[in-house]
Amino acid sequence: MRFRARVARVRGLMRGREDEEVTAFVRASHGRLLQTAYLLCGDRGKAEDLVQTTLAKTVMAWSRLQRSEGIDHYVQRVLVNTFVSSTRRRSWWEQPLGRLVEGRARDEYGAVEQRDWLRRALDALPARQRAAVVLRFYEDLSEQATAEALGCSVGTVKSLTSRGLRSLRIRAEADAAGESEVRYA
Amino acid sequence: MRSPTELRAGLVEMAESVKPVEGFEVGVWKRARRLRARRRFARTVAAAMCVAVAVTMFRLVGVGSTPHLTATPPDGPFLGWSAVGDVDTNLVREATDVWDRAKSAGPHTAVRPLVATRDRRLHSVVVLQGYDKKGAARLAFFTSDTSAGDALRLRTDRPAPDPVSTQVISLVSPRLTGPAGAASNDGWGTSAIAIAAPGVTTLRMSSTTIDQELIQDPGSETGRFVVQMFNLATTASTVTVTGFSKSTKILSKPRKVFTLPADGGADGDARAVRGAVIGRTDQQIVVALPADRSVQPGQLAVVAAGVVGRVTAVDQTGGEATIDLVTSPRFTSQAYTNISDVPGSVRGAGTKLVMEHIPPGEKMYVYQTNRVVVPDPSQQDRSIGAVTIGRASEDKADGADTVDLTPTADLAHLRDVSIMTPFDQG
Asked: Which of B16, B18, B27 is facing A52, going by the closest CB pair?
């Protein structure tokens, strides 16, 4: 009986310490993950939801993760996979109102306008291209690390990034041409 | 957005506009708990489904042990077995009438059928249980007399078997197709009838008097009632009945539930008196006899595999019979080959037998493993109930009139023997 009580107490202590660690990790990584998630989702509410899910999954896998290296890589992979999966299995009631997003009014100020343009340009990219662009140019991940996070080959990462950048460039050029036409009109 | 640097700057600027709200940890923990509960539920459902699938597989496919044959409760002194198949009430009525007239044993009461059906070989088969006029529980077999318009004939009337321990009842005789007591003259005219307890799905009967192996695929179900034909040498002493039980599971295999000697013959057949071996010398055995005065010197002692020897002395007061083994030099008998009827005589020669006096001439061949049989003096015919004594150890040489035989009965391990006695009219 005494032995069992001791085991239970040790387990309780370990669990308590584990909870403290995971809470610290959640606090430390939440902000950064939220920003990445926002870039991926384009919506603050969805980004918070995505981060919550990612961190919840991390909490559940915490004891296993502690025995392995690279918690950050794991979290990044979960974030991207959860995002890509959510775009794949979006239910009919979760369909984004494309017209509403496209028709969102532009900010009056230049910087805000620039941010708004980038937001809409990112939203127009397919999920995996968007993830590749965000991981490469915001998270500054190498091609290898991006490939690991996306669960694909380095070649696929190169292809996704290149196509994403080209789409953004074409869109920027088209918008610039449209603006000059308006000016000359 | 001309360059990756511009893109990077734009992304950083956009991301910095997002700040975490207060209390996000609570949300994360709540979500984690919800996910954990959902996974636990999914795991439980999956485990339940696995168990359900496994149980279904076990029940359907038949992995695991086959259930044992459950004993049917007795019906008083009678077997409590249900009747096999549909009962033909006309046959039951006719058989009861025949039974009541036989040997002034009737009227029979509380008659209950075990079988009352038409059969391709015997035309009609009826097996009844009932009390005779003295109140004794009896069991009777009836078959058609094909020479009298298929009128039913009583073939045997026995005491009812033990209703608790009996697993199969059977009748083996060449006297089941003609008038009462008349043997068939067809070489393949011995009929065997067997009825097993409910739960038995397949019955096999095999005879040691024929070379053809009758052990068929027990997977093909015969039901618990079979009628089978054998050669005229076949008697109840040489027939074994094997019952199998198979569950309804798809891949279950039939399980052997019993292997028993056949019960006995019909009226007119030689009767086997069983006795335990209680003593032995080099070429003789002594057998304990039941209170039965029908055993006489000169009668054959047999086991299912063949002849053991011949009764040379009977001590009726002591209830013992002395039997010379077939390998004894004192043992001689007329004999013939089962397959081509080559005649001769057999004598014992120590550890083997010698068939001699084989007449010269064409077709007087004896080949290795040919079965040699001796007539049973208790039978009314030379071929009926002829018993195997041995098999040729080698091919008979050209011009020779002898050939060595190997006894078919295992003389070294005798525990019980049957002494063939003539049918007792009384």
From this structure: B27
